[in-house]
Amino acid sequence: MESGKFCPPLYLQRYQFVIDFVNKYNPKKLADLGCADCSLLRKLKFHRCIELLAGVDIDSVALREKMYTLAPLSCDYLQPSDRPLTIKLYEGSVLEKESHIKGFDLVTCIELIEHLQLPEIGKFSEVLFGYMSPAAVIVSTPNAEFNALLPGLTGFRHQDHKFEWTQAEFQKWALDVCRSHGYAVEFTGVGEAPFSTENRGFCTQIAVFHKTFGSDKQLGTDPEEELHAYKLVYDVEYPSLCDHKIFRNILVNEVIYCAGTIKTRLLESSEDKETLPHVCLASINTSGSKEPLLMDMGTDNEPYLEGNAIYIPLAKLLSFPKVHRLCKSLLRLKEVLLETSQVTLSSDAESLQLLADSVDGCDLEDWEGCGDAENNETSGSSAAYEEDWDEELLRQSFQS
User: What pLDDT, in 10s, does the model give residues 297-349?
Assistant: First the structure.
């Protein structure tokens, strides 16, 4: 903590805790309950392990105001991921059962439970751990014992908080959940004081639950019909190479670009257009990167001239690293190119055919250098609304 305030801000420390967990366990399906302005979801969408990202909040205004910040960026279309990603936002209460959120790999509840009435906690526990039954759960909540260290704070940290638990109260609830629903729990937190706090713990206390072996019987044997209490307010599927049409377009464009590169180099190096000499392209890299333009796949597949046409063996095209990353086998490359009218193959479908006196290929510069997508997202978040004292009240030093 610097100058009497958390650095980085406490809400970012909570988000980083979740991100570190995701990096370690690679969940494919993740739901954020109480997602509010979707600021955590915007950070999580860049993690390639996640294939389904769901957010739930009872405040439809907050969801609708920020939902389009989860839309794909331009570079997501220009450079589709090799894995699918679907993002869904639901309007609904965490006290209601919803079949679409059952069986996720990870559910996060970041600063959520303190907004519920104490008598509702039992129902919340039953819905989350009993019905949804995720493989792992992260729950964070204010540590009431730390409040005395926060300058200027009287009462709860936010006007909408219905309670704030001590460490003992939080741990009792968590251990009761484990006994009732078959989970194990670890306690930790974020936000440390810069001096001894007499075991007051973290400013934000966190419980990490993992479902124990053999405790998922409810998912397989629950005869209860599917329940749909939530309203879907946003649903977007990101472009990915798992979509065959997208995969084909990306591959064909890359092939056209590589073929154009080969043709240009051959024509530039030839003084006699009827006899095209062998050209070593391994040292030529038009992208400017350190990656070799061609992979070493032998020298028996060189381009050749026949009449007014240049024939480039598909094996030569497959030797380009980007083409090879997209399409691992010659057979697969041939199958995809036969599907499109954008290129012409030889009669035996072993080579790509280009006219020597025409302009072929396409400029794919726009497909390069999209940059760090996460850094392009709109900055700013209302996630810190509960902790105005992070910036205002903590300017006093704890030592003063």
Answer: 444 678 888 888 899 999 999 999 999 999 989 999 999 999 999 999 999 99
C-alpha separations of 357 from 237, 277, 306 in Å: 42, 17, 13
Residue 365: other Cβ atoms inside 10 A: 10
Residue 286, domain extent: 244-367
Query: Cα separations (Å) of 11 from 16, 283, 365?
Result: 9, 49, 39
Q: What is each CA distance from 281 to 302, 304, 311, in whole angstroms?
A: 11, 15, 16
Note the pTM of the prediction, 2 decimals. Answer: 0.75
Task: Outline where the chain has alpha helix (H).
Answer: 10-25, 39-44, 60-66, 74-78, 121-125, 167-181, 217-221, 244-269, 314-318, 321-326, 330-338, 373-376
Residue 316 and residue 216 in one domain = no
In a domain, 218, yes or no: yes
Same domain, 72 and 218: yes
> 270-294 pLDDT, tens per residue?
645 444 444 444 333 444 444 445 5
Q: Terminus-to-terminus CA distance in the chain, angstroms?
A: 14
